[in-house]
Design a protein that fits this description.
Length: 354
């Protein structure tokens, strides 16, 4: 991850369409790269200037532009002018808190999504804002961080495997969204393993750390749900839209992608139910342990109450107390207290209080 200092917010009352970067401040340079490909040709990634990032209008191939970093507002404005993007689209690209959505315009689509990955070393989720603009023969991919999360797609393009080389930018957009959804499955596997460990820990030896871990998983599932639910709407809108920018052949793949999003949603809801049940088990386990401790303390208090009464009576030091002059008084008191303790223990045992 890039070094951060503070989070920048959009000023209240700013005019619609004003491009403001909303997110963690960064000082890293924005990298723009270009890939050209068609069914017969492939041009590897090449770094270019943002001013050279323009629609080429190739009828036979696709030009894929990747912009690593959306924190430079000037570059976003330049790209918006070069491709004729609506100011609201450029504004949403720079807003890393934007909810996933799909919007159609004259000649292109704008798609906002969230790439969710799992950091195994820190045991936490990382969320990255991903924006896609695609039209006839071109696709713009805006990434919040310069991480090569779509390397498998580039490898397939370079090797000529799969259907990407023989299709247009709509299929490339589908492939990118499909990769985003695939990462959701990876995250779900990691969270599922944590949930299983928490279930065992809750039953065997719950601690205060267990409660914190349960709440961490609940927050992660909420964040995952907040990202995947709108993605289902996005994919469904791409299927139902009659624009010529999305071919019927691609819509077949989009229907399969829609099924994947539904699967992820079902898995998230199931895990939420499981982790809620785990929290209930944790609370019940802690309450049961507390009850066991209170039961032991109550039994001990019940035994010592009559013993305290006896020693209290003979500790009053009155002059006329017959037992004080009796030679067997001290052993008799001990025998009385031992016998009383034994009777109470037998009584508690028969009552199944211990």
């Amino acid at each position: 991850m890039t070094p951060v200092s503070k989070r920048r917010k959009k000023p209240a009352g700013s005019s619609p369409g004003s491009v403001v970067y909303v997110g963690v401040e960064k000082d890293t340079p924005v990298i723009v790269s270009r890939i050209r490909y068609s069914a017969e040709t492939y041009e590897p990634p090449q770094a270019i200037s943002p001013n050279d990032c323009r629609p080429e209008g190739s009828p036979t191939g696709v030009v894929w532009y990747t912009i690593d970093g959306v924190h430079n507002v000037d570059i976003l404005k330049t790209l918006g002018e070069n491709f004729g993007l609506h100011p609201l689209v450029v504004e949403d690209i720079g807003n890393t808190t934007q909810r996933p959505k799909l919007e159609g315009f004259d000649g292109y689509y704008f798609l906002a999504s969230k790439m969710i990955t799992y950091d195994a070393r820190a045991s936490k989720l990382n969320s990255e804002h991903v924006s896609i603009v695609f039209g006839q023969g071109f696709l713009l991919l805006f990434l919040q961080d310069p991480e090569d999360l779509f390397a498998p797609i580039r490898s397939r393009l370079e090797a000529g495997r799969g259907r990407i080389r023989g299709n247009g930018s709509d299929y490339l957009a589908y492939a990118l969204v499909d990769a985003i959804v695939d990462y959701y499955f990876v995250v779900l596997e990691e969270i599922g393993e944590r949930v299983e460990r928490l279930e065992d820990e809750v039953v065997n030896s719950p601690t205060a750390h267990t409660l914190k871990a349960i709440h961490d998983v609940k927050r992660e599932l909420i964040a995952l749900r907040r990202s995947i639910w709108p993605m289902r709407e996005v994919v469904n809108a791409m299927i139902r839209d009659e624009s010529p920018l999305i071919s019927k052949d691609v819509k077949i793949f989009l229907r399969d992608l829609y099924d994947h999003t539904v699967h992820v949603i079902d898995s998230v809801e199931t895990m939420r139910d499981i982790i809620t049940g785990t929290l209930d088990v944790y609370l019940s386990s802690v309450s049961n342990r507390l009850n066991q401790v209170m039961k032991v303390l109550t039994v001990m208090s019940s035994i010592f109450i009559p013993l305290t009464f006896i020693v209290g009576v003979y500790g009053m030091n009155f002059h006329y107390m017959p037992e004080l002059e009796w030679s067997w008084g001290y052993p008799a008191v001990w025998l009385l207290m031992i016998a009383l303790t034994g009777v109470l223990l037998v009584l508690f045992k028969r009552k199944k209080w211990m």
